Amino acid sequence: MSQKRYLSTMDDFYGVEHCWLMESNQKAIAIQRLLVSVVDDDESVRESLPDLLKEFGFAASTFSSAEEFLASGSLPQTRCLILDVAMPGMTGPQLQQELIRRRLAIPIIFITANQDKTTCRRLLEQGAAACLFKPFSDTALLEALNAALSGKGKTP
User: What pTM, to 2 d.p., does this model score?
Assistant: First the structure.
């Protein structure tokens, strides 16, 4: 029988904690990085964010649309979702509502190029962990990730 527990380590360079999911059975222990999925129609975001997330100690997967993410096998493994607000087809807020409808409690960090604080406030009220305006700093993203994964979200 497998037991799951989380291991937290401190990264002195960034000054933050990284969480690791550890699964143990009678003879083996496997350490698995927490998966952060990125859904954004902007190719440059899909190319740059995974490298940064890996530096932070996370595993990363990227998707060019909400529909692609929903069709993937990544939903059960995703521990946090970085989600663009405005995309062709299903928008970020529509994906948020679909995840709620499916009763999937994945913390969401919205990212947007539109500097509309009203939209961010509404998304936070609907359960998002954070909303960041592009371009955002590495520190802002890391703080949002830590808040989202610890359940302390709501970063305007």
Answer: 0.79
CATH class of 34-150: alpha beta
Q: pLDDT tens across 113-154, in order?
A: 998 899 999 999 999 999 999 999 999 999 999 999 988 655
DSSP per-residue letters across the chain: --EEEEEEEEETTTTEEEEEEEEE-SS-EEEEEPEEEEE-S-HHHHHHHHHHHHHTT-EEEEESSHHHHHHSS-TTTEEEEEEES--SSS-HHHHHHHHHHTT----EEEEESS--HHHHHHHHHTT-SEEEESS--HHHHHHHHHHHHHT---B-
Hey, where are the domains in the chain? 34-150
83, 98 Cβ separation under 8 angstroms: no
Report the length, in residues, of the chain.
Answer: 156
